[in-house]
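pls design
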């Protein structure tokens, strides 16, 4: 299967008037269409920076970022730690805001967005305001708003970290099922190893700064299992221990 995204020998140097900092060094990995890939690594190693590079919000100092068969720019959908809903707009206006902002509010796109709202259980809440929704429902609205723009790739920057543990488990199932149903490709940045294993078919472990790929783990669960069900599988804890051990190993210069 053709790669949807490939990062080849990426290097990123931050410059200041007095110094320069090597943030990412010789980082390479690829993602195929339909993959759900998680990126884990030490705090401050550059996980979110990688998403910014993929989204073309930043340019690497050297190396290549290749989308599909050709080196072209794409507009991935981005989900942040906070849902970033506008409290003074109702749910439908929040969902359709991206279409208006991107000048893509065609009849076809509006119909698609409304279908997503209905398909994922928010039809009766279209005239409600964000403050009237639970944390999990707010994240569902944020995801549907992102999907309404039909991105090829979803970038998820710790989207569950602001939720309490019980809600987080439920929302992980929710988001996973929506992404799977819509046949999207996703990259999740997380500090939570359990979350990475439960949601992904591949986990990329980064070194401390400057970030490099230390190891890539292929995660092989029955595709019909939800993230919560994956946590109960016999091979879940051994995978956790392997990734934890990789993160604890000191990086070799």
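designed seq:
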């Amino acid at each position: 299967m053709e790669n949807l995204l490939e990062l080849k020998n990426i290097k990123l140097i931050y410059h200041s008037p007095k110094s320069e900092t090597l943030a990412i060094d010789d980082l390479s990995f690829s993602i195929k269409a339909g993959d759900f890939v998680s990126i884990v690594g030490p705090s401050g190693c550059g996980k979110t920076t990688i998403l910014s590079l993929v989204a073309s919000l930043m340019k690497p100092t050297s190396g290549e970022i290749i989308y599909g068969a050709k080196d072209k720019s794409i507009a991935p959908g981005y989900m942040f730690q906070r849902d970033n809903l506008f409290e003074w707009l109702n749910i439908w206006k929040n969902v359709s805001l991206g279409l208006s902002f991107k000048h893509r509010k065609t009849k076809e796109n509006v119909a698609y967005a409304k279908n997503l709202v209905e398909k994922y259980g928010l039809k009766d809440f279209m005239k409600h305001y964000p403050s009237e929704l639970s944390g999990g429902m707010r994240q569902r609205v944020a995801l549907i708003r992102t999907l309404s723009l039909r991105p090829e790739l979803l970038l998820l920057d710790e989207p569950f970290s602001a939720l309490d543990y019980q809600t987080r488990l439920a929302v992980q199932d929710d988001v996973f099922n929506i992404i799977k149903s819509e046949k999207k490709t996703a990259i999740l940045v997380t500090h939570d190893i359990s979350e990475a294993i439960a949601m992904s078919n591949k986990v990329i472990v980064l070194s401390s700064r400057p970030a490099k790929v230390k190891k890539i783990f292929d995660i092989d669960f029955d595709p019909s299992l939800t993230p919560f069900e994956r946590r109960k599988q016999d091979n879940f804890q051994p995978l956790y221990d392997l990734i934890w051990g990789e993160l604890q190993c000191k990086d070799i210069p």
